# Entry
Amino acid sequence: MKKLLLLTLVILLTLPSFAQEKATNSTEKNVLKVNTLSLFLGTGSIFYERKISDITSAQMGVGYMSFKLGDTKFTGLILTPEFRIYAKKKAIDGAYLAPYFRYQRYTLENADEDSKGTLTSMGGGLLFGRQWITDSGFTMDLFFGGHYGSADVKVETAGATEDSFDKNFFEGFKMRIGFALGFAF
# Structure
């Protein structure tokens, strides 16, 4: 975790020197991007962002996750709507603050206990980030923030209990971090 935080800080400090700042606001109104850091967690996530005004945008993230944590295998869908507030009237190209909501639904399997179930998790948080759009439309989005979530497990196998599945990864306060690459249009 410390290595990930160090890598994020290095990226945060060096990217401004590589990104080309425009003197004017972006003419693009849409951004499509992929979170590269989520791939390390076995998650594929795509984001679509739409400019609403000079200082706001809305973003919807859709992800699919399949990974094993302890004895439990999680497979399922993630939906993350965000509302972004940009500084300096530069919506979709600049520093932002973003409250968000997250809904997750997974099928669970514990092969050791031959048990199955579903997990539903809801939560939300607040992100701080910076998005750069180059003249060619190439987009980089670096973000980090806090997240709080709670999870509910429904057991589908007779004889199994909620304790058959490890849901601690989805509950309580967590950190959310990401680096997305994409294009604006």
